[in-house]
Amino acid sequence: MPTYQSFQTPRLLIEPLTKTDAPHLLALMNTPKWIEYIGDRNVHTISEAEAYIAEKITPQFKELGFGNYKVTRKSDGVFLGNCGLYNRPGLAGVDIGFAFLPEHEKKGYAFESAEKLRDEGFGQFGIKTISAITLPTNKASQKLLEKLGLNFVKMITLPNDKDELMFYQIHKKSIEAI
Asked: 5, exposed or middle or buried, with CB in 10 Å at 0-12, 13-18, 19+?
């Protein structure tokens, strides 16, 4: 199996999600906020989580070299959530996204991991534009995207989806100007 890039911040390890992370992903995908803001992916067993990783996460790493990363705390190895750069059909630019277990929210982990992936996306992966989507009701996500430097562009609806979403973007040149 190929090895993909991992990253570190002062407090966090950011590593590609693998089949061994299925129990953690299963717990995360079934939190109330995941279901409300991201959607029920009908992943309710460890074997379904393993299949989701094999069918949805691993192929993007193979194709692009980046994707969905688990975020763990360096000090004790505790799984906190995930953060990733995604090639999402219907979006211009690579999508950045994040989700954390409720007990690990509001501690700066989402910003710390997303900022690292934003910077690596522009630097190491050569991405020119990073996008994001969020529901209008997800105020915490909007605040974090703006803190990352993304700007609201317009409301959109993705193919085969009914929800109207807020669409954000940041361009590499915006970061270089800072």
From this structure: middle
Class for the domain spanning 7-176: alpha beta
Domain ranges of the chain: 7-176
CA 64 – CA 134 distance, rounded (Å): 23
β-strand 165-171 against 151-156: which pairing, if any? antiparallel
- Report CA torsion sign: 28, 31, 36, 41: positive
The contacts of residue 11 (CB under 8 Å, 6+ apart) are: 73, 74, 75, 109, 112
Q: What tens-digit pLDDT sequence spans the chain (178 residues)?
A: 467 999 999 999 999 999 999 999 999 999 999 999 999 999 999 999 999 999 999 999 999 999 999 999 999 999 999 999 998 888 877 999 999 999 999 999 999 999 999 999 999 999 999 999 999 999 999 999 999 999 999 999 988 888 899 999 999 876 665 5
Residue where the block lists tokens 């105020």: 139
Contacts of 119 (CB under 8 A, 6+ apart): 175
Enter the pTM of the model: 0.93
Helix 109-122 vs helix 139-147: crossing angle, to nearest 10: 50
Nearest CA-CA partner of 100 in 110, 115, 92: 110
